[in-house]
Write a structure and sequence with these properties.
The complex is a heterodimer of chains A (363) and B (381). With 363 residues, chain A is α/β, with parallel strands linked by helices. Chain A has three domains: 4-186, 3-Layer(aba) Sandwich (Rossmann fold), CATH 3.40.50.620; 223-280, SH3 type barrels (Roll), CATH 2.30.30; 282-361, Elongation Factor Tu (Ef-tu), domain 3 (Beta Barrel). In chain A, 25% of the residues lie in helices and 31% in strands. In chain A, the strands form three sheets. In chain A, strands 12-15-14-13-16-17 form a six-stranded antiparallel barrel. A five-stranded parallel sheet of chain A has the order 3-2-1-4-7, sandwiched between helices. Chain A is globular and about 70 Å long. The relative contact order of chain A is 0.14. Chain B has two domains: 17-250, Aspartate Aminotransferase, domain 2 (3-Layer(aba) Sandwich); 252-380, Aspartate Aminotransferase, domain 1 (Alpha-Beta Complex), CATH 3.90.1150.10. Chain B has 13 helices and twelve strands. In chain B, strands 2-8-7-6-5-3-4 form a seven-stranded mixed sheet, with helices on both faces. In chain B, strands 9-10-12 form a three-stranded antiparallel sheet. With 381 residues, chain B is α/β, with parallel strands linked by helices. In chain B, α1 (17-26) runs antiparallel to α8 (236-251), α2 (38-58) packs parallel to α8 and α9 runs parallel beside α13. The longest helix of chain B is centred in the first third of the chain and has 21 residues, at 38-58. The chains are: A alpha/beta (363), B alpha/beta (381). Chains A and B meet through β2, β3, α3 and α4 of A and α10 of B.
Chain lengths: 363, 381
Amino acid sequence: MAERIVVAMSGGVDSSVALLKVLEAGYEPIGVTMKLWEYRDMGGNLLAESNCCPVEAVNLARDVCVSLGVPHYTLDFRDTFKRLVVDDFISEYLAGRTPNPCVRCNSYLKWDALIDYADQLGQAKIATGHYARISTANGQPRLLKGRDLHKDQSYVLWGIPRETLQRTVLPLGDLTKQEVRRLAEENGLATAHVPDSQDICFVADGDYRRFLQEQAGPQLERIGSGDILDEAGVVLGSHPGYAHYTVGQRRGLGLSSPEPLYVKALDPAHNTITVAAQQSLYGSRCEVRNLNWLCDPPEGTLQVQARIRYNSSGAAAELSLNGEQAILTFTEPQLAITAGQSAVFYDGDVLLGGGVISRRLAA
Amino acid sequence: MNEQVYCDYAATAPLRPEVQAALAEAGRLEGNPSSIHWAGQTAKVHLERARSSVAAALGVEPREIIFTSGGTEANNTVFAGLLQPGDHVVTSAIEHPCVQRPLERLAKWGVTFSTVAPDATGAVQAGDLEQALRPETRLISLMAVNNETGVINDLAAAGEMAAQHNILFHTDAVQALGKIPLNAAQLGLHFLAASAHKIGGPKGMGLLLARSGTPFMPLLAGGSQENSHRGGTENLAGIIGFAKALELALAEQEELHKRQAAIRKTFLATLDRNRVHYRLNGAGAYPGIINIQLPGIGGQAMVMNMDAEGFAISYGSSCASGTAEPSHVLLAMGLTEQAAAESIRFSFGYGSSEAQAEGAAAAVSRVVARMGQPAAEPAVS
């Protein structure tokens, strides 16, 4: 009897082709779409091009499953998603940090919750349409970057539980986006031409300030406006509240200055933001917490390639471990090391682990 | 691939082959029943024959039958067409959403309503409805057979009480039509809503029985079809198919009831024999609907596992858009949210057999043994 596998289906082309690949590999798949958020309450411009109407997304996922003879279910994870992803997203901004909600969603929803469900369906495996690979070395499964480095999504997977790797199949790891589109077209999948999702799924218009205003209006009101300072502490202007800003941001400051100024730091305690010229935003050290390892947990000091944002290709750094926290020291200074973002550690293509940047440290 | 067994008749019954044949034949009627020429006349004759057949089955006059697009439209028609600001309605906590939502909407426009809870058996008692009456109560609305538990309400007692107080009486009989005797006059009913697809008729087809002498406005205003109670060209094939399905259902009503009782007995006996730990939700139910709680087993996962075994069953009021709220019916009966989330429904019908019921119960036993207890639902994990 074929091995059962639960495939997370978003209604996009990637997860559709993931389903196709596990079918080809001889699994008995079950497609599931997670209902994460009440999209009609989401607000924002739902007609923006980057959006995929979520009711249509569920219908597309079901269409692909049924056309491939695979059962499909929609699972209600709204409570879990609100509690573990959306509420955290809001509280992180209110704490002056810049969160990675996709990392938490993958860890707590796409893995923890899906594994729970797979357990109830007879200890099934799980599969997703992420561009990353799992390979086994010395009997241990490891997570690797996707072969298509332009699409590699391993960065958002650092937080998944290590013990689930052996039950996880990532069928797109060796494919390029073009190959995935072509497979979808050749197989006549309903999702072949669905545009790639952009931004954060519950902030479809990409306007997180609008989202915060709607979800946390009273808190933002209490924060109120504050001062914009230069590095010497001189007041340059005012801002409508630190939560509207993120480190490295240039727009929305309303300052005129001979050279462009960027947000360098947020101070929630005093509701100030500090701005500086770009070269002043470079830093070499930061503290990382909430560590998770997808290899045998290392100790002491190790040399890694570290990525501190989704679109970075990584930079050489030394990681110095001390219990629950680590100090990351880059060989070359990095632009805008941002609290709340994930720091992910690699050895070549192998993802070793990651954590959340808790603060920038002076060199 | 496992053999596929359909155990979800309360969601919808497969189209009966005789109805399919009647639909195909009706599809050849080219005229509009409102046209005065030969084509229209032929269509009109078939329309009125179907109406007469349905009316006779329900013990009323043909002019008292209004064909609709389904039970939802029929229920909406009663509330929207009858109630005025200031009117009060007494209804129950176990009604289908197509009764609850229209009342909630009318509440914004000055209609008030009281919701009466069922007792622990799941049935709503006439005495409890009576307690909720007010001087301005215009209508009592009580479903005949509950769609989730199969519990049968005592419509005769409620109708008698309504008559004593001179209040109009409406029932949502979507799960009752063709399955239990329904005589509008004997039950003291002024309005009865039903649908075709629960008895093997076409989907998107229903009726409103409205007794003469209770005027109401059409919900769908338009032409003078349906005695000016519902505008729009009639769904002639659907109506003919509905009449055929009802004729077949009534011809075998008693026989089906006996077979359903045997199916229920076999189903529960098989669970007992396999030592499955379960609780039956609802007492005195129509035998074709079996709602059970499997403590420690999430209902949603159970439905999926049964699906993989080939058995189509359902979980609470889960809907296609994927929200899995615990059943409001089971909560109203006093079940905890946890117990409601562990409850599943099997429903059988004209095509079901004892062998199928035994197979379904055996599959439950297998899945429960495999899943073990307890297993958590994602919403509470």
